[in-house]
Protein 1
Amino acid sequence: MSCRDRPLVDAFNRRITYLRLSVTDRCDLRCTYCMPERMQFLPRKEVLSLEELHKLSLAMIGRGIRKIRLTGGEPLVRRDVIELVQALGRKLGDGLDELTLTTNGTQLVDHAEALAAAGVRRVNVSLDTLDPALFLELSRRDRLTQVLEGIRAAKEAGLQVKLNAVALKRLNQHELPDLIAWAHGQGHEVTLIEVMPLGEVDGDRIDHYLPLTVVRDELDRRWTLTDSPHRSGGPARYVEVAETSGRLGFITPLTNNFCAGCNRIRVTATGQLYACLGGAEKVDLRAALRSDSPDDGLAAALDQAMLIKPERHHFAIERGAAPAQPRHMSLTGG
Ligand code: SAM
């Protein structure tokens, strides 16, 4: 087996099969826990072209990546993203098992049908609240109606929609049961996420950090939760909610580390491969792509990534402390 098709296995014997590919760092929302209002975005010339994104994805598929999730920033604000989805969709069943997207939903009305036609079967939509005033406060933009229409359009296009909500103390904390019940009523699975210390924001995240252990206790008092063996290939752990007949996931990067089963790598829109969401270890795929021998360069960079992937992240949220990593989730790709 040549080094261009050797499977990706890291130093801890974890097989890497899942790529999260950020196609832009730009976003049409400004979620307070994600980025400051005056976010400094990357100059466009630094961002990989569509051809480069496609080429590196193919190289990854050749090395055993079976699932690609396009993310950002907001992937659907990139004008040519559907062309990339169509190109990658042609690899489904030919090396690629699944092509998905994480989106804030604001542009789904325009793109849901094209995504489905290209072979996307599931999308994750981030939705922290159903309250228009809180949506505006959290995202600094008045777009809840578009998001809800986007979710409906996705469903009508035949896409399975999973909702992700960041749990935020005193912000959406009291509303989480209603959000979950609504989502389950619409046939959507929901996953709750703990806020992570990534990049500077305007306030202190600790003010709104809500451990999911607390949420689980609150929900346990209200509903009958049964641990589920279901796994989605990611870090979420699930329960079934008897009263709503739906599935609820918990992603707990702070209260319960899940790195032992990590199967993923992340690539930013500038082609920096981060071996861990919470770590600084990276290799430069753009330099490889733009070198005289891109295929060999990419193969060597991917080998290097396997050597440097850390065993685990070390997140801690402490008052006044600097973020675990200076880069925002919108850069690495959530
Ligand atoms: N724009 C797309 C979206 O909204 O889903 C994709 C990118 S966004 C960065 C991906 C996810 O990361 C969203 O669910 C968002 O709420 C979440 N996120 C952003 N910053 C976060 C943080 N510091 N901690 C936890 N989740 C965060």
Protein 2
Amino acid sequence: MSIFKKTEDKQHTAVVEDFRLQIASAHMPSGVRQIAEKELDMLSKTSPATAEYTIGLTYIDYLVSLPWNKKTPDNLDLERAERVMNERHYGLHEVKERILEHLAVKILVMNRKPRILVVDDEEIARRNLEHILIKEEYSVVTASGGAEAIKQLELSDFDIVLTDLKMEKISGIDILEKTRAKYPDTQVIMITAYASVDTAIEAIKRGAYHYIAKPFKLEEVRTTVKQALDKKLSTVSAKGSILCFAGPPGTGKTSLGRSIAEALGRKFARISLGGMKDEAEIRGHRRTYAGALPGRIIEEIRRADSANPVIMLDEVDKIGQDFKGDPESALLEVLDPEQNQSFIDHYLDVPFDLSNVMFIVTANIADNIQGPLRDRMEIIEFSGYTEDEKVNIALLHLVPKQIREQGLSDFPPKFTAETVSKIIQEYTREAGTRNLERQIATICRKIATEFVHHKETIRNIEITPAFVERYLGPRKYYFEVADEKNRVGVATGLVWTEAGGDIIFVEAARMKGNRELILTGSLGNVMRESAQAALSYIRSNASSFNISEDFFENHDIHVHVPAGAIPKDGPSAGATIAVSLISLLSGMPARRDVAITGEITLSGRILPVGGIKEKILAARRAGVKVVVLPMKNKVDTETLPEDAKKGLEILLADKIGEMVDKVLIK
Ligand code: ADP
């Protein structure tokens, strides 16, 4: 044998031994450990020159690097959580309250003294167990036989039931069955004599957590009970606990998620699902080829080096439409507490327990999430901010943050409220604060550059509105409504999009043709149907609007909604389309500063629509003076904050005729 071959062999053995040690100290569950060891045994017989060797080694390396049993201790202090959220986030009272409630339930469940039922007909064993468990600070109830145990189970719930397997009349198996039927989350541990281990294994098959053989060792009782309790608590605390933050971009969803992680003392990771096209991105690739990778979930857990991080899954409502595989079932496997205890990533090919992860998903519109996934979520709505709220957020949070980030901490420029208002009105058009933050960042950067250029810094420089144009260039947005004239055939409407509320101008025109309704502007199916309904309603009620009955004869009608690159859908533009048509056909101009929203029926009734707060905010941003809403949306207007309605007249209407009276100028 050549000397090279010998050194190579030595190296090979050293690598294998090193991995053996790593496997031993990786705290894997026993099943996983066996698989890793088997894989390593196989590799020890494989030539290091082969591709299988590299693939196998990378795999084991990955397995040992996962935080199988590594968790950050939770900081379950509600007051601190509240403080962290209040310090970092302005307003959002309702949202914060819901989050605190959610955490409070978790804390209650986790901090309660665990209740254990000990069932044994042998008095000494019963007393011994009781003694050990009380010392561990558990609350213990004992039963001297099956009948008494059943009575206790009828009376109240236990976290753990420790029961002797062999008892007269009612056996341990009966108690197991009873417990599983009544309290599916309660974990049952069997106590058994060595001789009946086979029966104990049978009990595990029927759902017992584990067994302890008599005579039992103190340490074994302690750890088995502790582990069973962990399992019970993780299922309970995870139940129904997928928080879903829904709302337009820039309304603080991500940053609040970060604050929750920080308040709990957990690691934070974020995965964007928007546009994800392949199930493998969630669940990993099978390990059959070189370069196969685990999915993002497992990868983020590895990166966080903790089995209980807060993971934020962004844009669940926008998972790629051409998704390969079934996104819903992939997500359920990740999120559903019933399934995620043994989540199998295709690359790992062994289960990883995700039940300790706190998942928060985000969506722009919660209604877009459907089915079983939605049932398991607790949806918390974030809505757009009013101008006053934005000014406060900017002055308290965004400006200080940008001053820090742009290196201006030693010479912080001072922004006035008027300046921020000017930026909001003239340089942004959004529900949240993302663009606002960007504009503030631009100003801070430019000031920093000036300081460097002129080799001088100005202390206490005050950024007044007059500065804004100098730094941000000419005004980007105008009040689309106040600055324009009233016209015939053009009506102002309010819609609800993923980015929050928005204003639309529906234009209608009539020309010689063949009774055709032409619709343009990237309209979705529902909006097209609304247009059809509006036209049919007008045709059957023409006389009541002083429109000639045969307006459609030898004519085409064209309805257009500009800003055509943005797809629009939903029924709430129905009323706006109807009013623009009536304006066109009757020749009465429509007031541009009156905005309407509502679904229309064939009989001209106005049905209620969603997103009222977002729409009202959008109306104010655009300079609208009067908003006409469906009568049935009255409740929504009552819960609106005062500063959202400031300067707006809000009217209600039941029939399209009433809307026409308010919008068209006779
Ligand atoms: P989203 O995830 O909803 O798109 P982000 O959390 O990314 O929004 O928020 C965008 C920016 O606005 C962040 O810098 C965030 O800190 C800030 N922000 C949003 N809402 C608030 C608020 N209520 N208080 C303080 N800062 C906020």
Protein 3
Amino acid sequence: MKCRKCDRPAVFNMRQHKLALCEVHYPEWFVAQAERAIEKYHMFGPDERVLVAVSGGKDSLALWDVLLKLGYRADGLYIDLGIDDGTGYSAASREKVEQFAARRTKARFTVVDVKAEYGETLPEVARRVRRGRGKPCSVCGLIKRHVMNRVTRDGGYDALATGHNLDDEVAVLFGNVLHWQTGYIARQAPVLPASDEGLARKVKPFCRLYEREMAAYTLITGIDYIYDECPYAVGATSLRHKGVLNRMEEESPGTKLQFYLSFLRARKAWFFCEQAEAVELHPCTNCGQATSVPGLCAFCRLWERV
Ligand code: AMP
Ligand code: FES
Ligand code: ZN
Ligand code: ZN
């Protein structure tokens, strides 16, 4: 198969776009897609400062790479959760972030070591609190959201960018639709604006790009990342939903993208407007971040007894 744009052999074929490209034109296409999403959804402008949450995985390192290539002012944030369990997951992923940054002069980043700052690693907190029993992921999500928001705000960044790709977004949407969790559905978007209560603007420049496309980009451009999934992700519902969606995509290429884009159109038409009505937020009495119940926020309650 030949590249659509030149005579070189195609290295990557995207059935859902009926497009095959070579090793030069594929990365170009990929970067242009991200740039288009940034502009289309008004994620951030060239003069704004962006904080990229980098996990050491392919999506977030690809995102950081693309934003730097496009000339955006993008710094990294790595949250060290202290996940060890014999595989040294956190240490290994942190190393990937450090290696990535060492090769690029403009890639500056902050590390937040959860144990050093708050007293316990994620597995330790998850064992101690009821919320975490058997499911560290829920506590992990809470910690990551809090830390990301804090660093974005304290560092004076205009937006927080995460590496969520189309497969991630579609799996979450699918799960929420299965249970008709309309409140969550209403709050799923490529951009969440900053709120008066101190929540930072959140953006997902890769929300329209397939996981396969991310993998191809990192492979072709030589970005080294951590292949392992977090050990706690095994058996996660979102992974099962991804499996179902992959089978549908296999039979009918483009299913995921259509599902997501149709959702965004429905959302734009205020299909979920009642659900989108803001819940009342209060500042946490300890950290000041917005919380729905007056008093301590869920994050600060985690550490009350440490
Ligand atoms: P996940 O929740 O693992 O699916 O990751 C979703 C996004 O959150 C990634 O693409 C990153 O942008 C960000 N992220 C996940 N883990 C970390 C981490 N340990 N430090 C910084 N950002 C992270
Ligand atoms: Fe948070 Fe796995 S990365 S529990
Ligand atoms: Zn080509
Ligand atoms: Zn708090």
